[in-house]
Amino acid sequence: MGDNKNSKISFLSGNEAVAQGAYEEGLCFAASYPGTPASEILEYLSRFPEVNSQWSVNEKVAFEVALASAIAGRRSLYASKHVGLNVAMDPLMTSAYMGINAGFLVVSCDDPGIHSSQNEQDNRLLAKFAQIPLIEPASPKEARDFVGEAFKVSESFDTPVMLRMTTRVAHTKENMSIGKRKEPVIKEFSNVIEKYVMVPRNAYRRHINLLERMERLKSFSEKTSLNRVEYQDKRIGFITSGVSYLYAKEAYPEASFLKLGFSFPFPQQKARMFASQVKEVYVIEELEPFLEEELRIAGIKCKAKHSSYRIGELRPEDIPQIVKGKKKKEVVAPTRRPVMCAGCGHRAVFSVLKKLRLIVTGDIGCYTLGALPPLTSLHSCLCMGSGITFFEGFRKVLGKNVVGVIGDSTFVHSGIPALINLSYNKTNGVVIILDNNTTAMTGGQPHPATGVNIKGELAWKLILEEICKACGADNVDVVNPHEVKLFREILERRLDAEALSVIIARAPCRAIKREKNNPPIYLKDKCKKCFVCLELGCPALNKNEDGFIILDTNLCVGCNLCVEFCKFGALVKS
Amino acid sequence: MKTTQQKNDTLNIVFGGIGGQGVLLASEVCAWAAIYEGYHVKKSEVHGMAQRGGSVESHLRFGKLVWSPLVPTGKADYLVCFHSEEHDRLKPFLKKGGTDLLPALDEARRLLINPRYLNVFVLGVLSRSLPFRENNWVKAIKMVLSKRLFAENLEIFLKARRVER
Question: What is the pTM of this model?
């Protein structure tokens, strides 16, 4: 694992390091659906021609293809953000019964602190729930090194392995040496119906097999060097894992540590031994009391964080406070809110929805920003696909005043079955697909409706209007949302109809297609300072010190949406 | 340039600004200069929604051995902000006696530096007090910036590095 002097120095994020490590270990197949903080794993892997990598339509699909590739005999990897793994829970749970063949890694990038997610669940609990080994790197360097160990564990115990990262591991960069690819492991596929066909009788036997495997993994956990004891000053002993180890080490470099890299199944004996050697045992961990519970099960007395630390990220300066048994001082620093880009098509759609005072069910993506002031015109957002499913529930109770919005990538991910559900259950009304031809929020990854794959090659292109018709939509309109009047006219007509209508509001993402038109001209003498233009929340329009408007011509891309909204002709097309 | 920094201390820099200002690019160049100088380097940032004009914050630490990827509050040797609101938010990171690079923004404005090059200019000012050799800065800029942008950015960087205060 040491850094070889002949190898190349690289500066890699934890995500890139996982990918690099997996590549070096002979990874052959990788699948994912983009999501922060996990997206860079597949992006990095896609550079290697030896790795068959793919953006899949959603996490369940990604998990299953990658698992199958492992069962078929090649080292494979699935990666997603924490909530992404929820989508793949169904195959995850049973994959532990089936086992694998060649190594299979489930990389989960959790988001403590909810930097860009809808919750902050702790996926270590999912590893325990599914009864699969849990490996937790603390840093990018460890992430690279642990991948090789994880593959070995996966293959020697015939089990999927969870490699659990958090934002501060995934998005920290560290300098490290990188090496060459090893010869990939090639395993024969063996046709064992009892193992790979999970009908009740086989599954029951495999459940017995799973628990036997857990016993063997428990012994392994006691022995593996991934669980490391560092004795120094024995007055304080910390038991910790992941990035929390680094925070504790920073705060108490002289203390003793049980540093867990293989945290489930938990090494009870090792922990008991450690606890007997130090005066006080402290558990340091982010989010849920996962290690704390394992210690209590093992009957080890320990001091744990105040429950207020179950919320949010840990920071290095929190550690002395935790040791003192203090509550978390919750200081939520006001940060600047992200906004839709200047010229974004979503803004045009929301400005119309706001004018019509509609109830809007939303989804996961840039357009979730429509809930923020000044637009405040998105009224629900649960998870991927919920723009359509919430539309159905709301519409059936609240009537015609409701529309659903969903992005193009999200529609492919979870929207298609939701749309079929609408037509099958005779729901009328309007669903708007906000089609910007990319997965914008996570950095612009392609998907089937873009007609490009992860390697940048042309691929089969899903035609959204055709699939909507096939799913049972009575009307499908394609509109440029910047043609505000036309868009509004069609929307009003469809809202009145006793039919299921999909409007595809199509305008390319501004973060990707950067072409500019001339900015409009601001005629100050015509401005009545009504500030209707500011209600659009465009970053290029601001109130000036003199009480009038100032148009930032660097940011403006000339979409002319503000021109449409200015009643007094103070903003005119140039 | 003389260095006063011992090689076994961790040096902490917090970079801040808003999406689109080149915060991450500046911290990346600085990180590479530290790597070429032979340090262990960690840099932590949060990607995602920040790219839509929201707050961007990047923590850079280097030394003989770096533990935490985050700079603890009150422990930053340097605070490098490209936006005054973000500066107010990140100020608690700066340690007593630490260097605040905010005046470099005024310096840039005085010299009529195009906002596009603000990050590289401030980096040039920062470079006056960091223990890295100039050739390593140049290598770092070459590493991070595209060929097309290298020359103009290097020029701004050196201009800022060599201005006498």
Answer: 0.96
